[in-house]
Write a structure and sequence with these properties.
The chain has 334 residues and is of the alpha+beta class. It is built from eight helices and 18 strands. It binds flavin-adenine dinucleotide and magnesium ion.
Length: 334
């Protein structure tokens, strides 16, 4: 088995030409990934400290790898009892359930048992047997997440269920970082939490931000095209992020909750561009799992949401409102 784990990873999206004079940024490892915040002016240490403390606060609430986190407590009480959680955690789970419903279950925060079975987040991923998948797949069902907004409590009704917010909580953390930046009056900035990008404000010359999109077949920081955008979040889900090969077959971390296997539909990445990073995070994963036609239908059903779909033949399809330039001529528009 060949396991290709890009860890830690660096700048899923590379800001090629958007760096202005006077850049000052801080990079720290958090949320299992590389997090970079760039403030083009007023980059005070205290502000960076506030932003990274907030990111760590969210990690402490929502990480699967921290035994005292809200998510770990919810999971260890699956089938036993509801667990009261921090309002931040409750909000993310509530939105996750919303997007699960909206995507017809393609995005499912109860994906935990399948992610653990494949071991995709650990050092020894493997392709499980059909029998193993069949046994645990019924546990993956967002409908069995009970929320009580009065008590801020969450109950997984079946023993063995588990939540995994890996496809949505980075987006929430990016929004939280951007909010601190905006509240501090920062006029220009960039937040990149392992591929969840937010550009804040406008460039001095008022030209659009130019954000490079990771080449799914390239090395880290190889980009194949550039999005031209104003103040937005740009979030990508791709097969290149966590993957492994076994017996000549390639497996990645974006699972179909319908069959328990990595989604295999010809897509290699989906980028979503909109205003809220948490929502873009959920939607990029949802659209990937749904595949192009259904994913496009979902994206187009929500006002203000744009997307870039990249296929395994290197063809690219964008929604109407995206200004995107291909810079690597091995890729082409469909
Ligand atoms: P996304 O497409 O946004 O999400 C994919 C991830 O979501 C998968 O890896 C899986 O976990 C889950 N998923 C797969 N299929 C579905 C589906 N159909 N519906 C819903 N979810 C699905 N990684 C570490 O290695 N170590 C850590 O300590 C660690 N801590 C973390 C703490 C937090 C709070 C968060 C949010 C993440 C953490 N991670 C950690 C995970 C990691 O940083 C990324 O979240 C992960 O690699 C996926 O992000 P992505 O943007 O690449 O893909
Ligand atoms: Mg996501």
């Amino acid at each position: 088995m060949v396991y290709k784990r890009i860890f830690p990873f660096f700048l899923i999206i590379f800001f090629s030409a958007c760096i202005e004079q006077g850049e000052f940024s801080r990079t720290e490892f958090a949320l299992g990934t590389v997090c970079t915040v760039t403030l083009y002016e007023q980059g005070k240490n205290s502000l960076y400290n506030d932003i990274f403390s907030r990111i760590r606060e969210i990690e402490n609430l929502m990480s699967l790898n921290i035994s005292s986190s809200d998510i770990s407590r919810i999971n260890s009480n699956a089938g036993i009892k509801p667990v009261s959680v921090h309002e931040n955690t409750f909000k993310v789970i509530e939105r996750a359930v919303y997007f699960a419903q909206l995507s017809g279950g393609a995005f499912d925060p109860a994906i935990g048992p399948i992610v653990s079975l494949w071991g995709i987040s650990g050092d020894n991923p493997r392709c499980p047997s059909q029998e193993e998948i069949d046994k645990i797949l019924p546990l993956v069902n967002w409908r069995n997440i009970e929320l009580d907004a009065n008590a801020n409590s969450v109950f997984l009704t079946q023993h063995g269920m588990s939540l995994d917010l890996g496809a949505i909580a980075k987006g929430y953390a990016a929004d939280a970082a951007a909010e601190i930046l905006k509240n501090a009056g920062i006029k220009r900035g960039l937040v990149d939490l392992g591929g969840n990008i937010i550009v804040i404000g406008e460039k001095k010359d008022k030209s659009p931000w130019r954000v490079g999109i990771q080449n799914p077949y390239g090395n880290r920081r190889d980009f194949f095209g550039i999005v031209h955008t104003d103040e937005k979040t740009i979030v990508t889900s791709g097969i290149y992020e966590r993957n492994f090969e076994e017996d000549g077959r390639f497996f990645h971390h974006l699972f179909s909750p319908f069959d328990g296997y990595p989604a295999d539909n010809g897509l290699i990445s989906v980028t979503v561009i909109m205003d809220i990073s948490m929502e873009a995070d959920a939607l990029s994963t949802a659209a990937f799992v749904l595949g192009y036609e259904k994913g496009l239908f979902l994206i187009e059903s929500i006002p203000g949401v744009e997307a870039i779909f990249v296929f395994n033949d290197r063809s690219v399809q964008v929604t109407k409102g995206v200004e995107f330039t291909i810079t690597d001529n091995t890729f082409f528009f469909r």
